[in-house]
Design brief:
Elements: H1 7-12, H2 15-22, E1 27-34, E2 42-48
Antiparallel strand pairs: 1-2
């Protein structure tokens, strides 16, 4: 299954994203993503508390 997600959705679905969500950091902002869509080699993501 090739599921399409937005960058924030994909970041939230990672191990790091799930651990941050446990601590209330549910706002996800992808500030940089290197490489083609779906094949990023490096990304900078900021997790913060929901407003």
């Amino acid at each position: 299954m090739n599921e399409r997600r937005t960058q924030p959705e994909a970041a939230a679905a990672t191990f790091t994203g799930r651990m941050n969500a446990k601590f209330g950091l549910t706002d996800v902002n992808v500030t940089r993503a290197d490489g083609p869509p779906g094949q990023h080699t490096n990304a900078e993501v900021i997790f913060s508390r929901g407003s």
